[in-house]
Amino acid sequence: MSGKKYVYLFADGCAEGQGAWRDLLGGKGAGLAEMTNLGIRVPPGFTISTEACLAYYAAGNRYPDGLQDQILTTLHKVEASAGSVFGDREQPLLLSVRSGAPISMPGMMDTVLNIGLNDQTVEGLIKTSNDPRFAYDAYRRFVTMFGNVVMGVPHEAFEALLEEAKRQERVQNDSDLSAEALRTLVEPMKTMVQERTGRAFPNRPRDQLRMSIEAVFASWYNDRAVVYRRLNNIPETLGTGVNVQTMVFGNRGADSGTGVAFTRDPSTGEKYLFGEYLANAQGEDVVAGIRDPQPLGSLQQLMPEVYAQLAQVGETLEQHFRDVQDIEFTIQNGRLYLLQTRSGKRTAPAAVRIAVDMVHEGLLDEREAVMRVAPEQIDQLLHPMIDPMAEKTVLASGLPASPGAASGRVVFTAEEAVRRQEGGERVLLVRNETSPEDIRGMHAAQGILTARGGMTSHAAVVARGMGRSCVVGCRELAINESSGYCHIGQAEVRAGDFLTIDGASGQVIRGQAPLVEADLGGDFAELMAWADKYRRLGVRCNADTPEDAEIARRFGAEGVGLCRTEHMFFAEDRIMAVRQMIVADEPEPRQEALAQILPMQKSDFKGMFRIMDGLPVTVRLLDPPLHEFLPHALEEIGELAAYMRRPAREVRRRVESLNESNPMLGHRGCRLGITSPEIYQMQVQAILEAACELKREGIEVFPEIMVPLVGYVEELAIVKRHIDETAERVMQELNIRVDYAVGTMMELPRASFTADAIAREAEFFSFGTNDLTQTSLGLSRDDAGMFLPHYVEHEIMEHDPFVVLDEEGVGELVEIGVERGRQTRPELKIGICGEHGGEPNSIAFCHRKALDYVSCSPYRVPIARLAAAQAALRDTEADRTSS
Amino acid sequence: MSGKKYVYLFADGCAEGQGAWRDLLGGKGAGLAEMTNLGIRVPPGFTISTEACLAYYAAGNRYPDGLQDQILTTLHKVEASAGSVFGDREQPLLLSVRSGAPISMPGMMDTVLNIGLNDQTVEGLIKTSNDPRFAYDAYRRFVTMFGNVVMGVPHEAFEALLEEAKRQERVQNDSDLSAEALRTLVEPMKTMVQERTGRAFPNRPRDQLRMSIEAVFASWYNDRAVVYRRLNNIPETLGTGVNVQTMVFGNRGADSGTGVAFTRDPSTGEKYLFGEYLANAQGEDVVAGIRDPQPLGSLQQLMPEVYAQLAQVGETLEQHFRDVQDIEFTIQNGRLYLLQTRSGKRTAPAAVRIAVDMVHEGLLDEREAVMRVAPEQIDQLLHPMIDPMAEKTVLASGLPASPGAASGRVVFTAEEAVRRQEGGERVLLVRNETSPEDIRGMHAAQGILTARGGMTSHAAVVARGMGRSCVVGCRELAINESSGYCHIGQAEVRAGDFLTIDGASGQVIRGQAPLVEADLGGDFAELMAWADKYRRLGVRCNADTPEDAEIARRFGAEGVGLCRTEHMFFAEDRIMAVRQMIVADEPEPRQEALAQILPMQKSDFKGMFRIMDGLPVTVRLLDPPLHEFLPHALEEIGELAAYMRRPAREVRRRVESLNESNPMLGHRGCRLGITSPEIYQMQVQAILEAACELKREGIEVFPEIMVPLVGYVEELAIVKRHIDETAERVMQELNIRVDYAVGTMMELPRASFTADAIAREAEFFSFGTNDLTQTSLGLSRDDAGMFLPHYVEHEIMEHDPFVVLDEEGVGELVEIGVERGRQTRPELKIGICGEHGGEPNSIAFCHRKALDYVSCSPYRVPIARLAAAQAALRDTEADRTSS
Fold first, then answer.
1. How confident is the model at residue A2 (pLDDT cuts 50, 70, 90)?
2. Which value does ipTM take for this structure?
3. What are phi and psi for residue B707, nearest 5 degrees?
4. Is B790 annotated in the active site?
5. Are A663 and B663 inside 8 Å of each other by CB?
6. Which one of A83, A216, A734, B234 is most buried, by most CB atoms within 10 A?
């Protein structure tokens, strides 16, 4: 044997490779080697390495030097182990050839079974199996598969011949065909292949083997595989391994069969051998759906010893790999062969239970358990779900915008939602799309369904923030609001009818589907406690109402990182006063309106502070452009004019004069606070009065007053001076003092660049990464729907930057802001309060950049806690590895 | 004398200080010292240094140690020089005390004259002057000034007593009051001061002097001075000098007088002694406007020898200071005293002429001459001006948005402007505000007048770009378009009437004011040639039409840095095709529309390339959101639908679906190029076909194709691939090859951060600092009018960031972009094409950051050339100083 080693034998409890060599042997090859070394019986064979694959391409699609020799030499050892010989007429060895890349690409590449059959060796197979029908069936299957996979003849061409044979024999199923019928199929099939390809079907087993191996090499570059790799970011340069293995057959009679086993239940996590078994069958038959597999229990009854062996193997593998195993096995004449083992996919509840159980069993430590559950996965656990056992009628599907299922009576307007909810009904808000004016209706509803919009539309973002289930962009929804009904797919649904949406799957379901509530105790609580032990980042919530704050505390929030005061402005009983304040040109009616709003804001803040009881609460002063609060329909403008006792024309002119071309970049945030200081003054007064009065009741309050959209330190200096003046006045009037801090939302590139100056005034920074993304990328979240999906699909962007923080652009601004801010004020408290605060990759980024906390919507708080723990553990791991 | 030296004598041709010590002596003190040392006669005196002023504050508003002694010692020397004694009853010396800061703050601080007068010394003054009326007049003036300035009694209180005296003497003017009347005024004035202040009026000359000096120290912190310093960025820590000087009197008879002289004509620059003279008067009288001064010629007739002395002094000072001098002088009994000299302010034409003349005279070298003209100033020279000699009726004023004067017939719509202009008329477009749809009308008009908008409104920006005069925000303009007239102030102006606007002053003038054309030859051309010799930055122009390109070349542009293709889309004969292209949902009508537009774009490009003849032309592919081109009025939508032969409802729906919340951050720039590649393909085809066909004619063309709004290198890679494919196809079809480059506009923060990656694809960068300002600062140019003026006025921002590049935010992004871009591609060509490309501070920034060129609107090209030269010369200067 000359040159590089390309071929790795596994046979008789001893493999040349090992489990850790995934890059060299591919996942499947490494698993086979590992199982062999563990003394588990796998059909003997060998793996051709990924290096051989790459060398094959490098040589212009030719075997590299030495490969052919190594294959033949190793094949002899396999023959010795199997006790049969490849191409032998008496005792022929049959082989399978399967791909196996370092990263799993299920179903993307090729497989050829039963290699080695021809008119001579089939006779040997008949002799050793004593079953001509089995042998001819194997033969025609081989010709079909080889002709299709290796020689490129469409599957249908073989099907046609098979159908013709069944017609002649007047039978229904393949399995009813006689041995003779199967035998006579082979020759026409080979002829057909030759006619179609111009090449003779190869009869020499060695040619068959070589062509099969080359076909697997080539399949690394088939269209499906190329697309799959691009979608999953798998480098082309990995190459695939090729596994050549002795065939075993599960279709050799009642003492044969094939199956799949999980070492724990992948739905619940319960520890027992879970799986399916099909007697006297090959894996293919299961896939083809010809016969229904039975629960594994059936194997226990049929062959108790084999079942016990399987259980034992499962235990061995789980102990060895320290994770749930998903095992493929075949039983040939009472002998158990393992074909594959890998980590088992599992549901969210199972993932949590398995991780916790394995700690209790001593298989994992707490840190490992924390790393075992994907943060995004646990989102499912936090919301009610549709009972998986229940029947349901799915009318249509949309985008799953905010998880959880919700049932309620259909309403088409926000007002109706509020009205019915106040009457004690559960409602579902169904609209073409939503706008800020719908906020109260969205809050009143159990869930929101829209016809338009994407994953970052207003409805989606707000619903996630509120923890309402939400399905958006349901194209089959057509609303006829004035007539009080809508069409969903073919069905007509009237206002007041019950409807259910599943925000995790996007399904829209007729009537009231039965729901199962979330359980936050038990294993979940235990796992989260471990997570909290290992994380460094604090986790706060974005909450605008006491109700949201309540939920967030239940989910473990350590304070409020963002309380948006503007949502409080939309309440029906105050919107008129808010509008008067905005439209009023003169100080008097404006002051009058502010005086009306003040007690309402104060009571909001009291509710919020009371729940957070001593935890910090970051209140952002009014941020959006004023015209967002104004009516635009003529009728509503008329109402406002009447309320204000002013001419409608005047009010309308004022409303129009507040319109902006690009409101996102307009007169908002602290710019309002500077040109209309009385609004912030009212808000600060409400915050401080609430805090002082609660303190008198014995409740500790720590308000952090956040000034939005600061770009120049001078802006913050002016607003801060106003805040301090108002705060001082309130505390003197009430004769009690509270601690409060003043800081800023970092949401403009210029703020990051001048963070050293801004930190002279700011006691904390909170990165508003939603707006920072909009400004850094020049991308309006409201408008990006026109091209962002195209961008993500064509991988111009790796992720939607409103979902996963863009580290190259936005991230660098965060880094600059942190560094310069702490230069001036080393103790500066820094958090993030954009949507990214609840997204695991972004949380890991915040951990690496030494932020103090993340803040996210209440329902993402547990996700953030877990993600923060994983980021910290990964960090420790990296430290350990590098030191 | 102990400790630090605070007091600097100047007397008898010898001063302890010198002209270079402005920081120590203040501007006035340094000038007096310098003149004294030059042997020019100034009234002897001394300067108390700014250090003394600062020490005075530091000591809690008390004279520092040694100051009083130094003052007295030096005063004796002044007495010796003047031949009179301070406080002496026979020959009293009178003193003036004047402020004088290192940076001129005209009129902001205090002055006291005639110090040293009391009931005794006034008798001495009568004796030496032999003029009781003069003496008593000086006395009552002193009491008034001291009482007001030093003791804080309002001026009106003194006026009242004066009026009373005039009533009693039954005279009209102060100058008609008798000596006796003046004498009897003094005592009541002193009594009034005592009553009002509770303090006796000081009669001891030394007390008067000390209190006056302290008053001048204190005036550094009066309100006016504080505000002025803040507005002009003058540090508080400079302090002021105090000049104590012998009084001289221009009101001592026919051989006395006072005047102001310029060594060259400040309007034209012509070299002769220019100024005004008032016989037998003090400077105060000139200021008070009691008598009209005469041209300096009158002095030449009255006292030819003194005039000759003055001319000689002027020559000496000009030679010494190497600049035009603005001289204040007084003649007392035939003796000429110089009171002050400083650089003379001058008009733009004068500045150019003086700089050039002084080089020819050998007074300056070319570099110095280039530094002597403020770039912004020459803007005036490039446009027609209203003949300064002409009579005119000013109806109202607005903001001077784009310089130059323009006359024309009033039109109220863009269409009317185009129609009349095509009929050969000169028109002035008068509108409430303008929008992109008005572009052609703006181009057709001589000038634009709007009722609304600020210096960065659409009208202002576009007009500057086009070099059209423009006045915006004229609040006294009320348009009644449908009735075909408007009101401007009190006047009614009908459509078709002539009107003139002056874009440099903001004036709106009735009828056709006579205009004077710009002269770009002579001195101007000579100065610009020197500027070109010393600058390193290239200067290109932003030009969208061959006409603009033509003007820019005349102004010295070295290529086109930004050709915005979208302006070409608004032409009346193509807008329908453009709209069809946008609205068309299917490929066929879209292709049909593109095919119509192609030849028009091609002919535009040919015109542009032909004029630029071998110079590079940067063509930006379509940038704005498509809906900017669409009609919004129902009627226009109907027209479009008819043109397209589609239902109006469908067209309307499509138009609405293209609406965006924040178009600035929406579906525009290369995002369009990626989702609708056929548009860019058409544009690239037009560019390349134009270039190839011209090359065949023997004209060299070097198109630089610029891709806008790139944030991800992947975007540029995709668009560039499309460009190269189209270019290759065109060149093969036409069988000729042209060089072209592909680059990108840098206008997003993310682009700067990823400039290293983007430079892999881009052959040039052009910083679009308009949009980069909008994104970095989160500031919409269209909406900033609501608060930006407030921000600039209250100094939250030092400058409007759309006018002067924000170095801290936008500038850092430019720096990062340059550095990272050149890391990847050291030869990367980098320019700037925002409005800032024509603003001198911003140009200096571009020079320091090693950009290759700036690009600006045609009329700013000369400004940019001069500013670039100054930046380079300042750099050389700094190098020389530091080495």
1. low
2. 0.82
3. -100, 120
4. no
5. no
6. A216
CB atoms within 10 A of CB B480: 11
| A750: nearest CB among B718, B787, B808 | B808
Q: How far is CA B751 from CA A775, B756, B822, B824, in A?
A: 12, 9, 14, 14
Q: Looking at beta carbons, which residues of chain B come within 8 Å of A458?
A: none
Helix or strand run (H / E) with residue B138:
helix B132-149
Residues of B in Cβ contact (< 8 Å) with A626: none
Q: Does residue B458 have an active-site annotation? A: yes
pLDDT tens-place string over residues B255-288: 999 999 999 998 889 999 998 899 998 877 665 5
Alpha helices in A613-712 (DSSP H): 634-644, 648-657, 670-675, 677-696
CB neighbours of A480 closer than 8 A, spacing ≥ 6?
Answer: A486, A487
Nearest residue of chain A to residue B756 (CA atoms): A808
Mean pLDDT of chain B: 92
Q: What pLDDT is stored for residue A530 in this prediction?
A: 98
Tokens encoding A390: 């229940």
The C-alpha of A781 sits at a distance from chain B's nearest C-alpha, in angstroms, of 9
Give the pair of three-digit tokens for residue A501. 């949406």
Give rounded-to-5 percent helix, strand, coil for chain A. 50, 20, 30
Would you state the structure tokens that stand for residue A770, as one six-digit string? Answer: 């939603």
Region for residue A297 given its phi and psi (left: phi exceeds 0; alpha: psi -120 to 50; beta: otherwise):
alpha
pLDDT > 90 in chain A, percent: 71
Q: How confident is the model at residue B883 (pLDDT cuts 50, 70, 90)?
A: low
Q: How many residues does chain A have?
A: 883
CA B473 to chain CA mean position, Å: 19
Interface test with A, best of B435, B654, B671 (most A CBs within 10 A): B671
Contacts of A675 in chain B (CB under 8 A): 786-787, 790
At residue B235, the pLDDT reads: 87
Which of A870, A711, A704 lies closest to A775 in space, CA to CA?
A: A711
What does the pLDDT read at residue B1?
Answer: 44
CB contact under 8 A, A787 and B714: no
Per-residue pLDDT tens over the stretch B287-308: 555 567 888 989 999 999 999 9
B775 CB neighbours in chain A (<8 A) are 749, 775-776, 778
Which DSSP category does A127 fall into? H
Write A416-422 long-range contacts (CB < 8 A, 24+): A416/A441, A416/A495, A417/A441, A417/A442, A417/A444, A417/A445, A418/A444, A418/A572, A420/A444, A421/A445
Nearest to B777 among A711, A784, A791 (CB): A711
Give the 3-state DSSP-derived string for B625-691, with helices as H, strands as E and coil as C.
Answer: CHHHHCCCCHHHHHHHHHHHCCCHHHHHHHHHHCCCCCHHHCCCCHHHHHHCHHHHHHHHHHHHHHH
Where do we find the tokens 């378009």?
B481
Tell me, what DSSP letter sits at residue B105?
A: -
Work out whether the CA dihedral A12, A17, A20, A26 comes out positive or negative.
Answer: negative
User: Which is catalytic among the residues A458, A567, A836, A847?
Assistant: A458
In degrees and rounded to multiples of 5, residue A311 shows phi and psi of -60, -40
pLDDT at B641 exceeding the cut of 60? yes
CB A565 within 8 A of CB A601: yes
Residues paired with A354 in a beta bridge: none
What is the pLDDT averaged over residues B493-502? Answer: 95
Give tens-digit pLDDT for B357-390. 999 999 999 999 999 999 988 887 888 888 877 8
pLDDT of residue A1: 44
